[in-house]
Amino acid sequence: MSNASLVEMTVVKVSPYLREDRPLVWLGEKEGEQPRLLPIPIGEFEAAAIRMRLEDDGPGRPISYDLLSSMVNCLAINVRQVVIHNVRRSIYYARVVIEKDRTIKDIDARPSDAIALALRTDSPIYVSHALLDEVGLEPLETDSDVEHTLNRFHEFEAQIARSLKMETKTANIHPPKENAEEAVAQRPPDKEQDELSLLQHQLQHAVICEEYEEAARLRDAIELLVSKAKR
Questions:
Q1: Model pTM score
Q2: Do 167 and 119 share a structural domain?
């Protein structure tokens, strides 16, 4: 993927999402009058590691990302860039591009790990144009700053949380042992699970962008799919 198809981003902040143990890292376009935002769910440890770097509040002893950064430097490895390039079923995918002895390699990584490393090696963070066009949040014309867009996102968390709860119940991730066979029999096939995840993702985007008519249509479609899965 060439740099022409990438958008350079900056780390705006880390914030809670739905509940305290489900943080978001917010990326924003580095350039542009109204930069688009990309919120990515991450783990608690990763959120703390990113927040430490943003706030220049290092731990008393090196954590794993500090150790990795020191090893990279000692081995004369150049972290050229971090690229977040895809999302599937609400899971984001990234890669770390490194250079050693004039050889460039792409290393698969979680976005949270890649971002934490990039901040410690002063490496640029990119998102593919296609991904940002698909799931990036565009500020409203009335939004005066990034914080307003973030606040608008959190206003609708209750609606998103209810939809996520519905999906979790349908997935039957941890069914009781005595009902395991019945749960497997009732679980939607992969095609339906993919469709449910896509509808869920579209619902989140519609709610965030205040497209209420579209959100209502997607909500009804999700409820219909869940109803079919229970039969």
A1: 0.65
A2: no
